Amino acid sequence: MAGWTNYVRYTLRFLLFFLSNVYALSCYVTWMALFAPLRVLAPKIHWKIEGFMFSVIQGMIVTWLQGYQVMECGDDISLLKDSETLMLCNHQSTADTPLVMLANYTKGSAVGNTMWIMWYIFKYTNFGLVSLIRQDFFIHNGKDIRISEMERLKKHMTSSYLNHGRKWVVIFPEGGFLRKRREASQKFAQKNNFPVLQHVTLPRLGAVEAVLTTVGEPYTPTVETFPDREEYEGSNGHHTQLEPDLKKPLKWVIDVTLAYKNAQPLDMLGMCIGYCPNNLITFHYKAYRVRDIPQDLPGLTDWLYKRYVEKDKALESFYENGKFSDEVLSERRLLRPMVPHYLQFDMLQNFLVHVFCISSFYLHYIFIYCPVFSFIVSLIYSIF
Fold first, then answer.
1. Any idea which of 271-275, 337-341, 378-382 has the lowest mean pLDDT?
2. CA gap 228, 238 in Å, rounded
3. 165 contact partners, CB below 8 Å, separation of at least 6
4. What is the pLDDT of residue 191?
5. Interaxial angle between packed helices 43-64 and 96-104, expressed in degrees from 0 to 180 and rounded to the nearest 10
6. How far apart are the C-alpha atoms of 60 and 241, rounded to whole Å?
7. Alpha carbons 119 and 131: distance in angstroms, whole number
8. Where in the sequence is the domain holding 284, given as residue range(s)?
9. Do 27 and 360 meet the contact criterion of CB atoms below 8 Å apart?
10. What are the φ and ψ backbone dihedral angles of 86, each rounded to 5 degrees?
11. How far apart are CA 176 and CA 200, in angstroms?
């Protein structure tokens, strides 16, 4: 009996996933097409509208992944929601991207003002058209096109990231899933006397270097790398909101460590349908100033490789103890640590997101698609 109950639940969740893809993506694409003239006439308004519409799309993801527990710990990155920030995340499965969107959905204005840099194959997924419209960046791999791709990314950061008022940039520096890249990464590490990692792979530098050197705050080495915490705390010891920077260069890097229970990554479709086990998923955040990060290739390589060695040790401790160890992550912090907590979402807000998308889909169908379709049919009928 329980088996039949599960199949019914899987079917209902799949129908919700399929139907909401139809009306949510149609809602986004149609509204952005209608507001397209503003892209030239009033670009700031256009991109604010786009940010709202993208937050609606991410609200759908909250619905799809309902029931899965996600915990956050580490630095309180919500303070950076209005700051130009580069987010670097380890990559294990297809679930990583929607889970990062899920976590970012709770970060205020950052939810709609994020640029994604991703492998070109994602252009052909259900979100591909959305990413094309909002000018996310699709990167191609290959030694022979590496230089041209990085030049293209640098131009894109100037033309799209800066001009459209984006705040956060998300990159998966490993360039692929752990299970697919681990063996090659370990062979490369052994050959070049680099650390051999088990739970992450050595990151690729190209995209990170291109972003930091194009829109990152210049490297300013100091004797004391980490400033006094009073700069980010009020005199009463409570957090004060960081002021947004009007000059637009990237000020922060957030090192995100995503951990699945027992080192068993979930997959996106399985989570949306509900057949993946409801294991705890944990995000750990660590913030760094961009000006403290070397931007020359040797210095950046050393800095980023050290972060991934730390990440590997942190994940090893997590898989052994079920939590991130304070000993592994005891380095002085720039931001006050958040209290570990489960992500909580407003169910009424999620319901209103669906109401908005369904209502928009209905209006578009009645006033746009039906008349256009009828006109085309009548035109064909009159010709033949």
1. 378-382
2. 15
3. 44, 47, 48, 113
4. 94
5. 120
6. 28
7. 12
8. 69-345
9. yes
10. -105, 125
11. 10
Position 236 confidence tier, pLDDT thresholds 50, 70, 90: very low
Beta strand 137-139 with 114-119: parallel, antiparallel or unpaired? parallel
Q: Which residues on adjacent β-strands are paired with residue 250?
A: 216
Cα(92)–Cα(127) distance, rounded to whole angstroms?
A: 19
Are 50 and 379 in contact by the 8 Å Cβ rule? The answer is: no
Indicate the residue type of 253.
V
- The percent of residues in the chain predicted with pLDDT above 90, rounded, is 66
Residue whose tokens read 């920030």:
85
pLDDT of residue 121: 84
Digit-coded pLDDT (tens) for 142-185 = 778 888 999 999 999 999 998 898 999 999 999 889 999 999 99
Nearest to 86 by CA among 151, 161, 177, 181: 161
The answer to whether residue 180 is domain-embedded is yes
Q: What's the predicted TM-score (pTM) here?
A: 0.88
Number of other CB atoms surrounding residue 272 within 10 Å: 23
Domain shared by 12 and 112, yes or no = no
Q: Which residues pair with 216 in a beta bridge?
A: 250
105 close to 345: Cβ distance less than 8 angstroms? yes
Q: Do 319 and 260 fall within a single domain? A: yes
Please tell me the distance from the alpha carbon of residue 19 to that of residue 382, in angstroms, as a whole number.
35
| Distance of alpha carbon 295 from alpha carbon 303, whole angstroms | 10
pLDDT band at 384, cuts 50/70/90? low
- Evaluate the CA torsion angle 89, 93, 95, 98 in order and state its sign: positive
Supply the pLDDT for residue 327.
59
Q: What is the DSSP string of 39-85?
A: HHH-HHHHHHHHHHHHHHHHHHHHHHTTT--EEEEEB-GGGGTTS-E
Same domain flag for 338 and 354: no
Starting at the edge strand found earlier in the chain, the sheet holding 281-289 runs 137-139, 114-119, 168-171, 85-89, 252-260, 281-289, 70-74, 341-342
Instruction: Name the amino acid, one letter, at 289.
Output: R
State the pLDDT at residue 5.
84
304 and 160 both lie in a single domain: yes
